[in-house]
Write a structure and sequence with these properties.
504 residues; alpha+beta; six-stranded antiparallel beta sheet; two-stranded antiparallel sheet; 19 helices; globular
Length: 504
């Protein structure tokens, strides 16, 4: 299975490994702002260097005040313009926290019933799947509606007109649900586009105009916008990706499309996001202006169900030790972003980066530790896949295999040796046309992780791509032996003319 199919937490481990002692989450003593900066500054610079990210921005708030703020690196490798607190970053799915706020504003005003079907406000939202009759707006907010995730961003050919969002919603009604409403959690970009369209139709404004007039302007978030044309009027970080040769290069496009605006279109600065963190830690009020009732937070930050403790209405809920956190992260082509709050502690952390899969999570955890007066036990590790690729490019696949074995014999701790590292390298090699080299690396992964169904599945994929039918058959069979529910392996065996459950 390619890298895109793995859990996000595992993908991030390709770049970094974080070791945090559980003991460090006992109640913290007060810590001075200078101590936080002294603790975090070398960690931030190390993260930038190890990840090879162009730029990073980070802020830590405590008791309503910013106690550490720093921009490092550049917003654009070509110009070399430095990242500052006024640099706009694309926020990706952190945008969804603005959508949830907008919907809850309208609910407070009696204009939206959270337990109503979206069709009450969007007459054309009539999904073909009969199970969709039970969908409620509350379920959509909590990602438990069954609506598909929908990763068809079309960033390379975006719609830019006012009718783009409604067209997406109209197109989506023909799609089946992924599961019955309320059955389980299933992250849905499409669901948030439906919510954004509800905001537009109920308010009589475009989605972007509503958020600007009712959220951004009251909070004086003057450098935040859902429109790319406006974002470009100031310093805007450009997106970067890691190519098949593990080189940081400009992304082929900016991740923006108005048809997807409610799921991931907000651009904002560190300065503005500090205000966003403050208003929520203040339960809806900032500098005498209120955007939500205090009581609304009891509902917004309450788990969606007994078995759905990880999600509220538009915010994720989690714990580290005894600490309760609420937050949201985001990842799009060329960007990652994260905002996390400890409401009871008055602590907030914001991390922005213009490299997809950049090291935002370990930075976030390190900053939370520092704000609590703990010493972050953080180790940023170089990318093993990147280093092996560079050996392979000069000396060949066997040299890369030898290098892998050599560094694995060394004292533990320098690299991440999870199966996803070699899996990622194999797919990148295949993507670059180095198919035989990819096969060799994925065979190494099979040797290292013989109990994993995924490593056999991946090797079979590349063997099939290279025309080696015998290798593909052998490894699809092994993948199915390790995981009888592997539908793709079963389908590929049928395609290759072999029974999906051969007798031993």
């Amino acid at each position: 299975m390619p890298r895109g199919g793995m859990p996000a937490a595992r993908r991030r481990r390709i770049f970094v490994v974080l070791a945090v002692s559980a003991a460090c989450w006992l109640k913290a003593a007060p810590v001075e702002p200078d101590e936080i900066a002294e603790t975090l500054r070398p960690i931030v610079h190390q993260a930038l260097k190890q990840s090879e990210a162009p730029g990073l921005a980070i802020a830590v708030l405590r008791d309503g005040k910013t106690v550490y703020r720093e921009g490092v690196g550049v917003l654009d490798l070509a110009s070399g313009e430095p990242v500052t607190a006024d640099t706009r970053f694309h926020l990706a799915s952190v945008t969804k926290t603005f959508v949830a706020t907008a919907v809850l504003q309208l609910a407070e005003q009696g204009k939206v019933d959270l337990d109503a079907h979206p069709r009450r406000y969007l007459p054309y939202f009539q999904p073909a799947d009969p199970r969709a009759e039970r969908i409620t707006i509350r379920q959509v907010l909590a990602h438990i509606s069954g609506l598909q995730k929908d990763d068809d961003t079309r960033f390379d050919n975006p719609d830019l007109d006012d009718g783009a969002l409604e067209r997406l919603v109209r197109e989506a009604v023909s799609r089946p649900l992924d599961f019955a409403p309320g059955e389980k959690f299933g992250y849905s970009n499409l669901g948030y586009c439906v919510l954004g369209d509800i905001v537009a139709k109920v308010s009589g404004e475009t989605f972007e105009a509503y958020v600007k007039r009712h959220i951004l302007e009251p909070l004086r978030m003057k450098d935040s916008t859902l429109l790319l044309t406006e974002a470009k009027r100031g310093p805007l970080a450009l997106p970067y990706v890691v190519d098949d040769a593990y080189t940081v290069v400009p992304a082929p496009f900016f991740p923006y499309n108005r048809r997807r605006a409610p799921s991931a279109a907000m651009s904002s600065t560190l300065n503005d996001l500090e205000r966003w963190a403050r208003v929520h830690m203040n339960r809806g009020e900032l500098e005498g202006r209120r955007i939500l009732k205090s009581s609304t937070y009891d509902e917004m930050w309450r788990p969606a169900g007994e078995s759905l403790q990880q999600i509220g209405l538009g915010w994720f809920l989690w714990k580290r030790g005894a600490e309760r956190l609420v937050g949201h992260n985001g990842s799009d082509t060329g960007f990652v972003a994260d905002i996390e709050l400890l409401p009871e502690r008055g602590i907030g952390v914001i991390v922005l980066c213009n490299l997809d899969h950049g090291p935002y999570r370990p930075l976030m955890l390190a900053a939370l530790d520092a704000a609590l007066g703990k010493t972050p036990e953080v180790v940023f590790k170089p990318s093993l896949a990147r280093d092996l690729y560079r050996v392979l490019a000069v000396q060949g696949a066997e040299a890369a295999v030898a290098r892998y074995r050599e560094i694995k014999r060394a004292p533990a701790g320098r690299y991440d040796f999870s199966e996803w590292v070699l899996n990622d390298l194999g797919y990148k090699l295949a993507g670059a046309g180095k198919v035989q080299e990819a096969v060799r690396i994925l065979r190494l992964n099979v040797e290292e992780y013989p109990a994993s169904a995924n490593v056999y599945d991946s090797l079979a994929d590349i063997c099939y791509r290279s025309g080696d039918k015998a290798c593909a058959l052998e490894n699809y069979r092994k993948a199915l032996e390790k995981n009888a529910g592997n539908k793709k392996a079963a389908e590929m065996l049928e395609r290759l003319g072999s029974p999906s459950n051969p007798t031993p």
